[in-house]
Design goal:
globular; three-stranded antiparallel sheet; alpha/beta; seven-stranded mixed sheet
Amino acid sequence: MTHAKRRALAEAGVEILPGSFLDLFRGHVMQTDSFAGMFDRNAGQWARQEPMILSDFTARPLVLQELAPVKATHVLDLGCGEGYVARLLAQAGAASVFGIDISSEMVERAQQAAASGAPCPMTFEIGNAVNFQDFPRKQYDRVIAVFMLSYLSRADMTAVFRSVRSRLAPGGRFIFTVPHPFLPYIRPLQKPVYFDSKGRDYFAGVDESYEGYIWRRDGKAVPVSYMHKTFADYFNALAVAGFQTLPRILELKVTEEHLALDRAFFEGAVGYPLQVLFRIDAP
């Protein structure tokens, strides 16, 4: 890492530790166990009972909005993390929620939180969505992958899409969110979100991992990664997996409501396309 990059990270409030997150990448495609380890080490920074991380404000509320109605539906949560969205779905009236995640620490936290008076049956297991088979139900009314696909190659993402299509009930709905494909190329290193493209262009960077950070409102920077894919890659993978209708697309951003809540936190991201939400409805 260059001295200038270290200085910029320090100015943004990021603590750089020897052998830490940034050293895992070095321009290579990360393996699943590396991602699991990253989340195991940082599980405490993801744990929350209320919105805290940037995407808790700009993305996850839209996931809930686009999933509606949730009442009496059976939900599959791929990449459930510590169960934040799963708990919101349970509170919204879901009949059941089943989540998987590659991080044992995240799953343990999700299980612990669900054990204390969950409003519906909630089950969480350690598993890789690319090849997981031990689903408790044959079909689900709602399937979500909230930033889980960010960590997958195009081939692995296509495998997940095939699995989702086979598990999605008639009339069901699949929603996934990813960082906006343009974001690493247009945004400087500053709060509240950053990905380092390492000088690669939009097409040459496909299936490469871009390390970065997303900030919490309390000022802490949480390490994240984005395995780059173009917009066309998402559409092509959905088609290859057998989805035959165009998805509904939402480009997510900072809004006036966000600025009214906490201008100091959100204003650095005003005008940037932060995330993309894809919604696919089954016939």
